[in-house]
Amino acid sequence: MFRAWHRKYPDIADPLDAWSKAVLEPVAALLGGEAVFPSDRPWQPFQQWAMAAERLKPSPLGLLIHPHYGLWHGYRGAILFAGARRDDAPFTSAGMTEPQPMVVHPCDACSDKPCLSACPVGAFSLSGFAVSDCRTFVKTEAGTTTCMGSGCLARDACPVGREYRYGPEQIRFHMAAFV
Ligand code: B12
Ligand code: SF4
Ligand code: SF4
Question: Which partner from 13, 87, 127, 152 sits 20 to 30 angstroms from 33, CA to CA?
Answer without folding.
Answer: 13
